[in-house]
Amino acid sequence: MKIVLITGATGLIGQEIVRVCHEKNWTVHYLTTSRQKLNNHDAYKGFYWNPKTNEIDSSCFEGVDTIINLVGASISKRWTPDYKNEIIKSRTATAKLLFDTIKTNNFPIEQIVSASAIGMYPSSQTNYYEEDFEPISTSFLGHVVDKWEDAIDQFSSLGIIVSKIRIGLVLSEDGGALPEIIKPMRFCAGAAFGNGQQWQSWIHIEDLSALFVYVADNRLDGIFNGVSPNPVSNSELTKIAAKVLKKPLVLPNIPKFVMKLILGDMHILLFESQRVSSQKIEEAGFNFTHHHLEPALEDLLG
């Protein structure tokens, strides 16, 4: 029986990946910083760690051949200087703790499948990004992803297969961006941002979780974009969401300067434009269930 170790297993994406693993009869070990979240069931076993003090229960690696790494502070909070540092350290320090523990104990880990983000790609309304695109974005998000991926790449020095999933806009009814996007629409106050032409490379959470497990199950190495085959503009996303909710769009587009006043530096999350390709993972044999935005939103919101 396959045993996987998941960091961030109790988060939005992690919970869905755990469900898919259990459907395949895989046993899940997970790391948590909360002792209250420790469980010890046959197929779902929790282990405590505290990356800030370099503390980890190394028995979490027993029988494990694959790590799925999802840990990282949310980017959806206001980016103060201190919180920017937390965003980076929560990704790099955790990777270092895993790496050092595996190296010191010579644990026979075969693969790490790590979350990353399409924030690596520069904002553009004309480019179509594949995984080998260079140069990377000079934005704060580009800097975060660059440091994050460097921290994961070091595992290859231990003979471990390194796989990275660059995640786009994750659509889920249970959290993330979608509930925030549709909240004003329920009060007939929805609107696109800026000129609405910025690309949104989205993915249904069911497809994303299946993609992570597919990469682990098939020992795929390298970088893969975690996005659906059909990105849309922000304006199209807004219109389709309103249509699915059967709500009118009566307000003008929201100017960039307004959101900058409200959100500070974090406003770029709403205005960055990345049209990202899913061709590589499809050519590796992965089949998306949710190809187009409208049926995906109907599945989530209908």
UniProtKB/TrEMBL annotation:
InterPro entries tied to this protein: DUF1731, Epimerase_deHydtase, NAD(P)-bd_dom_sf, SDR39U1
Pfam families named among the record's database cross-references: DUF1731, Epimerase
Residue ranges of every copy of the NAD-dependent epimerase/dehydratase domain listed in the record: 4-133
Ranges of residues in domain DUF1731: 254-300
Family listed: Belongs to the NAD(P)-dependent epimerase/dehydratase family. SDR39U1 subfamily.
Protein's UniProt name: TIGR01777 family oxidoreductase
Biological source species: Psychroserpens ponticola
Lineage: Bacteria, Pseudomonadati, Bacteroidota, Flavobacteriia, Flavobacteriales
